[in-house]
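tool=predict chain=A
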Amino acid sequence: MLRRLLTQTDNPDRAGFLWNTIVGVWFTFQPTAISFVITRTLGASETGQFAYAVAQAYLFWGIGIYGMRRYQASDVEFRFTFGEYLGSRVVTTAAMILAGLGFAAWSIVRDPGSADTMALVLLVLALRAVDSLEDVYLGYFQQMGRLDIGSKVSAYRSIASTIVIMLALQATHDMPLAIGLGVVVSVVLLAVMLPQAFVRPLTPQERALTSARLWRLLSACAPLFVATFVSIYVANAPRYAINAALDLEAQGFFSWLSLAPFLITLLSMVIYNPVITRMAVQWTTGDLRTFVSWTRRLSMLIGGVTVVTTAAGLLLGVPVLNAITGWDFGPYRTELVVLLLAGGLSAWGGLYSTVLTIVRRQGWFTVGVVAAAAVGLTGGAWVRHGGLLGASWLYVALFAVQCAVFGAALQTVVRRRRLEGTSRA
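tool=predict ok
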């Protein structure tokens, strides 16, 4: 019954797009859904504490996923086996957990009063560790043209565990207990569903794993790891600056306002993630005209999403946030619009970095996010002088730098490929 639910479909491509959309939407809204219950049951300071825990846990999650998903999904020539992808993910997830434990210990030594917050960081990190392990299976199913299967597993697991967390919060008003229960449910569901998700058993070739090739894979994806890790820091730099310069209540307000750029980024990922493998085939086979056409089309779609979302946010954003939280967001209308603009830049940056990975020029991803991180180091000054509006403009600056680097690099790569094709002709 479970196997049939996960694997049977009349149209794998259409089902893959649908379920990938559901997963993408839910992955972004999961912290927001939990924040909603925290906001209603515990208050602004606790919402800010949870937002900080999520930001720190996501930073270490960057170690776990290692930036490998897009590389795996676009590995249409099967250069590495699934066993090697899985083995590497075990290594990186273990490193993620050790890094989180080290950070928590260091923080508590520096400030014993942060013990409760660090406990929350580690619990959210445990949720992200399950996501990290699951992600390598999603990459495999996408390689096999069955993104729908992996997305169903992820959707069922994530939605069920989040519902458990929300119900436990309402019943107990205890954040650590609620998130701990969510971790248990998440692990159990993943362990039950994954064995039923495979249409056929893995072949010995697919399971093959050698340490030399595992480290070769980790080495090949190292630029993506650095870029992914730094990009997560960049995405959360305003939160870190707020934590240093303002209070947890301000962090709570910003956690809701900053939903805007992540919403646009999410909608954009839903647009381009399902076509990564198709675009990789176009690039590999030399169908440059179609490849460029798809890139332009996706860029225009992201522009359209940004315009529509910004207009909706300008008209409805403040009333909706007021209704959801019970707080007054009227003084933050400008911050919301600025963050929506930042969301569009973030989405374009995400698309261009994905395309750079497809064409195996992921080193430029590292260059772009490191340049943005240099701007992020000035975040304290932006927040001290401008408050939450300064944090919002910091987002714009961060993503504008990434967009400029990624876009210029992609134009150069495509131009060179076009010249190479002309010279061969």
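The mean pLDDT is 85. Residues 379-424 form the longest helix (46 residues).
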